[in-house]
Amino acid sequence: MSLVAGNMIPLEVVREVSPNGYYVSDGRQEVLLHYSEIVGEIEIGDEVEVFLFYDTEDRLAATMRKPLITLGEVALLEVVDIHRRFGCFLEMGLGRNLLLPFKELPELSELRPVVGDKVFVTLSHDRQGRLLAQLAGEQELRPLCFDAPASWKNKEVRARVYKPLQKGTFVVCEGGVVGFGVIGMIHPSERTRLLRLGEAVDVRISFVREDGNVNCTMRPPKQIGRDEDAERILKALKDRPNGAMPYSDETPADVINSRFQISKSAFKRALGKLMKAGLVYQKGSWTHLTQERDDGQ
């Protein structure tokens, strides 16, 4: 069986070739362990644990450094560079970067990671056997995550995006030292903006599902959200020349979401608060500042 890049494997040090380094072997195949890839001291005849990879000249080589990921594992790796045609380069702990190919990235540019984001990936090969990263999905992540307890409802957690879609954003919610965390989903109506692949975001657990996964929201609890939404609507009215806007209870939900980035139910709650406080009134399909009506009387 031939040696395969991406594995940690014990090999015997069989000879030294200066000025390059030592050759290590499984008894059938030899690979170079460059002097710069040696950790500590070694001698001919020693058995050393090495990681196999392809060097810049596409030759199978060895290093005694420990990578952040090996074949068969899922790891969270940081984006350290981006190439417009090739994709994202990830830090893998070896002084060289791992390519996450462009084909693995979302089509919508706003959903693609930026430098500093971290992505869940597995390790794979291209047709020549060189190492590549592939995005990890729920199939790979689920065995490494745990079921959320019922006590998690309304808990505020940090989450990492592993699948960004316009119809919903899938995340892993941090859960301490147990596995990677909990699988979660943010419905479009519960997002305050689009989220990138690999982006970290603060969310609140709105619902714990029977399967152990959770629904998340970027929005504050209704009471706090209603106050913030009311302030936003009031400011919008005050910024308009006549203190009036063509939005009311009758306005379609998609128009409300586009204009105020909130759901229609949240818009109605905020309007109700303002009307109860006597700050605004509705006339037809318009909403007006109360002071404008007072000034006109």
Low-pLDDT residue intervals, each spanning 5 or more residues:
293-297
Kindly provide the name of the CATH class of the largest domain. Answer: Mainly Alpha
Task: Tell me the name of the CATH homologous superfamily of the largest domain.
Answer: Winged helix-like DNA-binding domain superfamily/Winged helix DNA-binding domain
CATH fold topology of the largest domain? Arc Repressor Mutant, subunit A
Largest sheet: 5 strands, mixed, barrel
The chain-level mean pLDDT equals 90
- CATH architecture field of the largest domain: Orthogonal Bundle
- Fraction in helix: 10-25%
Query: What's the number of helices?
Result: 5
Count of discrete domains: 4
Strand order of the largest sheet: 1-2-3-5-4
The SS-based structural class is: alpha+beta
Tally of DSSP β-strands: 18
The Cα radius of gyration reads: 28 Å
Taking the alpha carbons of the first and last residues, their distance comes to 92 Å
Order of helices and strands: EEEEEEEEEEHEEEEEHEHHEEH
Percentage of residues in strands: 35-45%
From the spread of the alpha carbons, the general shape counts as elongated
